[in-house]
Amino acid sequence: MRGLLKGVGATSVAFALVLTGCSSTEADGGEGSPAELVIGSSDPVPNLVPGRQSNAFGLTMSVFSPLTFLDAEGELSYVAAESVESDDQITWTITLRDGWTFHDGTPVTAQDYVDSWNTVAYGPNAFENSGQLAVIAGYADLNPAEGEPATDELSGLAVIDDLTFSVTLNRADSQFPVQLSQAQTAFYPMPQSAFQDLDAYGKQPIGNGPFAVTTRWTEGEPIVAERYQDYAGDEPTVDKITWVPYSDRLTAYTDALAGNVDIVRLPANRMTQVADDFEDDHIYSFSGPAISYLSFPYWDARFDDVRVRQAISMAIDRDAINEALFGDLNAPATAWTPSIMPGNPDGICGEYCEYDPEAAAALLAQAGGFEGELTIHFPGGAGQDDLFNAIANYLRQNLGVDAIARPSVGWAEFSEDRNNKVLDGPFFARWGALYPSQQSTLRAVFTSAAGCTNCGGVIIPEVEQALNDADASDSEDGEAYAAAQQHLAEGFPVVPLFEESYNFVTSDKVAELTASAVGEPLLTDVILAGD
Amino acid sequence: MTRYVSRRLLELVIVFFGVTFVIYCAVFLLPGDPIAALGGDRPLPESVQKQLRSRYGLDLPIWQQYLDYLGGLARGDFGTTFTGQSVGEQMASRWPTTIKLALTAWSLTVLISVALGLAAGLRHGSALDRSVLLGTIVAESVPIFVLGIMAQYIVGITLGWAPIAGVDDGWPRAYLLPALIIAVYGLAGVSRLMRGSLVDTMRSDFVRTLRAKGMSQGDVVGLHVMRNAAAPVVNLLAIQLGSLLGGTVVIEAIFNINGVGQLLYKAIQDQEGTLVVGVATTLVFIFLVTNLLVDILSSVLDPRIRHD
Amino acid sequence: MTEPATVALDGTLDRATTTQGLWAALRSRVQFWVSLALLTVLAIIAAVPGVLAGLFGEGDPRACDLTASNRPPTSGHLFGTDVQGCDVLANVLFGARTSLFIGLATTAICLVVAVTLGTLAGYAGGWLDALIARTADVVLGFPFLLGAIIVLNTAPNRSPLLLAAVLAFFSWPTFARLIRSSVREVREREFVQASHALGLSQARVVLTHVLPNSLAPTLAIAATMVGGVIGAEATLTFLGVGLVPPSISWGVQLSTAQSYFQGAPHTVVFPSIFLTVTVISLIMLGDALRDALDPRGRT
């Protein structure tokens, strides 16, 4: 046993040595060639097939090039497509640019697009993003309510020649060219090799974009993409991008503080802290096409009276919440879609979106008050606790109702309870649009179209009608959709809360991040320091 | 001894099936719909959800799902997640990390608490003794996430002494700080046991006799105290394995370590049934085997504990 | 100091375990009185938190002003305000009630179960021992987080009592095993063997000799448990399955405040101080009890 004791002593010394070893070496900061970027990605990446990814927008948008592109001002331009045209807003002709190749060297053809879209839309494949193609004629045939589909091709797609194909929609939709833009990844093309083994393709996608994925992705390992030399579009500003996976945004942020990562998303609970942690020019706040709501259980009669819903809206001090919890990075909502949307009717919510506790209490009293406990439901584990506790505090203190905020375990419990109409109080709702058009948000939340189930309250028929009218119009300024919001302002089915910003922090290596219309920075356009 | 071990092995098998079935049912009884949640706040089309439900057998009765799962297990197939990833692959990539972390934490617990326990016991009643007792307890009373986040901030960011996220720096550099935090929560119990055993032994008649015969204090401690303390300490350490693995859930999240703790936590949140059952089952299995080994070891260390 | 075996045989061991003996042993200890004083203060706080908080400023922990979010201590708010602009002092005082309740209730439930099962297993041995040991294995092997999430989420309301029950359910095996092994060890000692030889009944031997001897090491660790439980409650909240507002506990405070600890350290520091003081006083009480119960520990 003497030997054992000595052993213990020796190991302690070794341990002490290791510790001092730690203290003598500095944590290594930026290294390597300046044209490399390290991105902290904190969302799980189960599959990189563009029709399936739901969390890897930055990567997919770097490895693939969209048909059309929307910049931060909402200007539409063409990338892989030369033109997208229609006379009736129903049948669209897409002409591809010549000379484009996939990373495996094969040319990008109209047939590739048609095959890719058919694959994404085919029901039995169960691709997560297939809903983006629901506007195309024949989508329903590939996704029958019962049984196997009789066909695996969308009837609305037809190849005209190598570089031209036509798309027939279910009904007129003036926003189709906008829907083809960068964040609607279901519209990206896949090469013929992809269809033989979609699982393998999902681990190392071959795209038509400026960057090629160089390693097969493995769980928990970084993903690396390098500049594709034969890329036919605009040259990217960087040579190599590495996405390092993090368990959550806060961890990625913390590692950015230590200087180990170049671009990370700002976590919600660091919004008030970020100004102390990072220099001003390392913080980027891009207006996103996302908006949050407080929705009501329309199956609960206590919320039937529009005055109850308006009173709740007026009892919430959005400015104070924005300052205290969001570091003023978000913006209080004044309409039912974010102001980044073209033609957005800013301020249409009027006095009901402004904080006025006395008027709110009076309005609730007029409506006959509120009976029982008011429980606000929100999905737990998503960093929303402070927001909903603040809202509960306002309702309790300003309206005198017994308001509490209750988080669920996660999305699974929350969405089931919402879909099955068992939530017994106002609840969280949010829509992050993938293309900046009021259409995207209004259709998903306030119509019977498959989108956010039960998020928009009772469906107001006038809203649906106004949307259909706007879809058929050929106006491009988006004003046509404002009419639908007029009906929302009158019916007040949900409380608009905040327009979201998508926020990022960068290392010293990054001189400038460029925004795009979907809130994500353009990784291909990052301007590096010292360039 | 052979009979004892074979009986324990049989019990182990029964416990194994019992636990997996309980976990299996529990996960599938959790409130919520994992398929509906796959898309987060941008829900999947109804047809896609229906397709996925039948692909993963969620439309079958639970006993059939369990039998199918066992069947797959017998073929060495842990199944796939709802996003189509192989559970076996995920576990294979994550278990080594967690095992390294846990073993590092475990070793640190033993080293530090034996040292503290001996120091406190030898100077029984002194200021050192009292501060060891109090210090370990106070450290343990701080919630692990508070300690973890503060250590990460102070040691990792302000002082820059240790990496604060990920394990890219390899063992031991990347593992020491997180392992140390986990180890803190085992110190109090083990060092107290060690100290108590030391004090008891030093007072016993036979030690006084030995010392009267001229045996040095070092020899007494080495020979008798360590031997007496070994069995209960090993026992306690085995018990702590559970809380150790629990600690890794929080610490892995804070230090961005891609281990099974993170995997399990995320899987529970997303209700990835097969993943939860796979990870939990391996956890239970490791726990049971360790305990069996410890029971055998402690009967070797302390002949007074007989297994008959 | 006397050897346990001889003490037991002449009956003096039992002296310490009688109330009178215990009291005599306790009252001479400084740490007993200090811890008792601290715990009394905490008990008063837990009994009338609103009145006490009102003396220092804001008496209502749920009177919050978001425009005064995360303010450092001032005269109206001695401990400052938290992220919601609620008074930290009022929350800490109200939190004492919940946190103390969870810590003590968990330990109590856990000890009752563990002492019963551990003694049974250790003393009876045989199939009963195997059954209890395997049950303990299952509970210990069952991932705590998973179990806690399931139980806590199938229940409509996460009350402090439910949380205590869940924490206790996953903690008893540790103690049961400790008690079992120490009971087994005591059982083998000469004095117990001797008691058997003298013809004392099984129950009598267990209650008068085996249990008191096994209890001391258990109490020492049980004392450490209370703090661990209060911390565990906070960790469960951190993981999203613990108490949620409007419940007020130190755990809820800490898990909310940890996001803001750089900008508003006071929101972490004050609940932590109360938590630590509570734990230390419980430990001191536990130590005093342990020394008094265990004659070998006396000097």
UniProtKB/TrEMBL annotation, chain A:
<dbReference type="GO" id="GO:0015833">
    <property type="term" value="P:peptide transport"/>
</dbReference>
<feature type="domain" description="Solute-binding protein family 5">
    <location>
        <begin position="80"/>
        <end position="449"/>
    </location>
</feature>
<dbReference type="InterPro" id="IPR030678">
    <property type="entry name" value="Peptide/Ni-bd"/>
</dbReference>
<dbReference type="GO" id="GO:1904680">
    <property type="term" value="F:peptide transmembrane transporter activity"/>
</dbReference>
<dbReference type="GO" id="GO:0042597">
    <property type="term" value="C:periplasmic space"/>
</dbReference>
<dbReference type="GO" id="GO:0043190">
    <property type="term" value="C:ATP-binding cassette (ABC) transporter complex"/>
</dbReference>
<dbReference type="InterPro" id="IPR039424">
    <property type="entry name" value="SBP_5"/>
</dbReference>
<dbReference type="InterPro" id="IPR000914">
    <property type="entry name" value="SBP_5_dom"/>
</dbReference>
<protein>
    <submittedName>
        <fullName>4-phytase</fullName>
    </submittedName>
</protein>
<dbReference type="Pfam" id="PF00496">
    <property type="entry name" value="SBP_bac_5"/>
</dbReference>
Automatic annotation (TrEMBL), chain B:
<feature type="transmembrane region" description="Helical">
    <location>
        <begin position="233"/>
        <end position="255"/>
    </location>
</feature>
<keyword id="KW-0813">Transport</keyword>
<comment type="similarity">
    <text>Belongs to the binding-protein-dependent transport system permease family.</text>
</comment>
<feature type="transmembrane region" description="Helical">
    <location>
        <begin position="275"/>
        <end position="297"/>
    </location>
</feature>
<keyword id="KW-0812">Transmembrane</keyword>
<dbReference type="Pfam" id="PF19300">
    <property type="entry name" value="BPD_transp_1_N"/>
</dbReference>
<dbReference type="Pfam" id="PF00528">
    <property type="entry name" value="BPD_transp_1"/>
</dbReference>
<protein>
    <submittedName>
        <fullName>ABC transporter permease</fullName>
    </submittedName>
</protein>
<feature type="domain" description="ABC transmembrane type-1">
    <location>
        <begin position="95"/>
        <end position="298"/>
    </location>
</feature>
<keyword id="KW-1003">Cell membrane</keyword>
<feature type="transmembrane region" description="Helical">
    <location>
        <begin position="101"/>
        <end position="120"/>
    </location>
</feature>
<dbReference type="InterPro" id="IPR035906">
    <property type="entry name" value="MetI-like_sf"/>
</dbReference>
<feature type="transmembrane region" description="Helical">
    <location>
        <begin position="175"/>
        <end position="194"/>
    </location>
</feature>
<dbReference type="GO" id="GO:0005886">
    <property type="term" value="C:plasma membrane"/>
</dbReference>
<keyword id="KW-0472">Membrane</keyword>
UniProtKB/TrEMBL annotation, chain C:
<comment type="similarity">
    <text>Belongs to the binding-protein-dependent transport system permease family.</text>
</comment>
<dbReference type="InterPro" id="IPR050366">
    <property type="entry name" value="BP-dependent_transpt_permease"/>
</dbReference>
<keyword id="KW-1003">Cell membrane</keyword>
<feature type="transmembrane region" description="Helical">
    <location>
        <begin position="219"/>
        <end position="248"/>
    </location>
</feature>
<dbReference type="InterPro" id="IPR035906">
    <property type="entry name" value="MetI-like_sf"/>
</dbReference>
<feature type="transmembrane region" description="Helical">
    <location>
        <begin position="268"/>
        <end position="289"/>
    </location>
</feature>
<dbReference type="InterPro" id="IPR000515">
    <property type="entry name" value="MetI-like"/>
</dbReference>
<keyword id="KW-0812">Transmembrane</keyword>
<keyword id="KW-0813">Transport</keyword>
<protein>
    <submittedName>
        <fullName>Peptide ABC transporter permease</fullName>
    </submittedName>
</protein>
<feature type="domain" description="ABC transmembrane type-1">
    <location>
        <begin position="96"/>
        <end position="286"/>
    </location>
</feature>
<feature type="transmembrane region" description="Helical">
    <location>
        <begin position="32"/>
        <end position="56"/>
    </location>
</feature>
<dbReference type="GO" id="GO:0005886">
    <property type="term" value="C:plasma membrane"/>
</dbReference>
<feature type="transmembrane region" description="Helical">
    <location>
        <begin position="100"/>
        <end position="124"/>
    </location>
</feature>
<feature type="transmembrane region" description="Helical">
    <location>
        <begin position="161"/>
        <end position="179"/>
    </location>
</feature>
